[in-house]
Amino acid sequence: MTRRMRKVSAFMLAAFILGGLPPANPAHAQSTPAVEPSSDAERALAAQHPREWANLTPEQRQRVLENYRRWEEMGPEEREKVQQNFQKFRNLPPEERQRVLEGIRKWRRLPQARRDELHQAYARWRQLPPEQREKVMKRYQQFEQLPPQQRERMLANWRRWQQMTPQQRRDARRRLGLLRPHPREQGPAQ
């Protein structure tokens, strides 16, 4: 098998994994209009995996073809990064792979507006200095280690915090001793 064929096979496997599982009832795939490859390269790709291709739903076939087209448009550096990520995925323990796949499924079910919000939050996080990012990650790991009831309490508190006005937040910080009084609020210096 040539290096290119190995890359295409690895990509197809990733597309099948990320595209979802084949339907439990293969007849379902035949009950809706078929999605077929539109170029010789796409047809060759499907021909390399005839059994898998036959078991895909039209939506899954469409996703595989879209992923293949994206692959073809990628430069060598992008392809290398995709392959590295796929290799990392393959090396994960089975239960961790399942978590990754479930995360992907959850992501796909999110409304586009929420995905955009999360992309923006991630971009802001990436712009933080490395020390701050590390601090955020440590706090998140500490949060993950908490018992479920305590995590729920913290999330409920966070939701309440988000609903407060800026003045209510300042007052709360002051009550908790987390905010120093403004110099104008302090009396004359002695």
Summary of the model, kept short:
This protein is mainly α. 75% of the residues lie in helices and 0% in strands.
Can you describe what's shown?
By secondary structure, the protein is mainly α. The protein has helices at residues 3-19, 27-31, 40-48, 50-55, 58-73, 76-91, 94-109, 112-127, 130-145, 148-163, 166-175. Residues 4-13 and 16-32 have low confidence and may be disordered. The relative contact order is 0.06.
Q: What is the topology?
A:
Blueprint: H1 3-19, H2 27-31, H3 40-48, H4 50-55, H5 58-73, H6 76-91, H7 94-109, H8 112-127, H9 130-145, H10 148-163, H11 166-175
* Strand content range: under 5%
The Rg value, from CA coordinates, equals 25 Å
User: Uncertain regions: pLDDT < 50 for 5+ in a row?
Assistant: 4-13, 16-32
Overall shape: it is elongated
List keywords for this structure.
elongated, 190 residues, single chain, mainly alpha, 2 domains
